[in-house]
């Protein structure tokens, strides 16, 4: 097995390195926060009552991923959040979360809000998938 490269000094091609591997840091002592992943659909009466669009309750028909991350004793200003197409990277002084997302997302269109009373960061990301007869909008 031989890898051809434009530069003779490189030992691997950039295509061989999975997205998000630059964030993996096994030596970082910060603990991983608790988190939950939810999937969200936009449905109307034609979906609920008549089943006209063919949507079902599976994650394949969801438009958004909502990630709720518990960050006790954290201020909003201490949170660093980086979203890529398949990776969420969150860092605070005490916590670190590297999360490989279950579906590719549109990293440019997302929302994050910090609920200080619940000490929770809520991140909503739009799933990026090809259009088909179910996912047409």
UniProtKB/TrEMBL annotation:
GO MF annotations, alphabetized: dynein intermediate chain binding; protein-folding chaperone binding
Name the record gives this protein: PIHD3 protein
Top-rank taxon: Eukaryota
Swiss-Prot/TrEMBL GO biological process terms: axonemal dynein complex assembly; flagellated sperm motility
Gene Ontology CC terms, in alphabetical order: cytoplasm
UniProt domain PIH1D1/2/3 CS-like: residue ranges: 32-127
Biased composition (Acidic residues): 16-26
Organism of derivation: Ptilorrhoa leucosticta
Family recorded in the similarity comment: Belongs to the PIH1 family.
Pfam families: PIH1_CS (PF18201)
Chain intervals for the UniProt region annotation (Disordered): 1-29
């Amino acid at each position: 097995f031989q890898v051809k490269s434009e530069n003779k000094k490189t030992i691997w091609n950039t295509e061989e390195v999975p997205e998000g591997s630059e964030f993996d840091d096994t030596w970082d002592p910060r603990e991983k926060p608790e988190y939950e992943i939810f999937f969200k659909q936009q449905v109307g009466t034609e979906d609920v009552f008549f089943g006209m669009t063919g949507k079902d309750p599976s994650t394949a028909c969801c438009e958004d991923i909502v990630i709720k991350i518990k960050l006790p004793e954290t201020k909003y200003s201490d949170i660093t959040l980086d979203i890529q197409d398949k990776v969420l990277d969150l860092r605070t002084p005490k916590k670190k979360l590297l999360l490989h997302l279950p579906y590719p997302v549109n990293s440019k269109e997302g929302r994050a809000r910090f609920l200080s009373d619940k000490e929770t960061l809520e991140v909503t990301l739009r799933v990026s998938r090809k259009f088909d007869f179910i996912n047409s909008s």
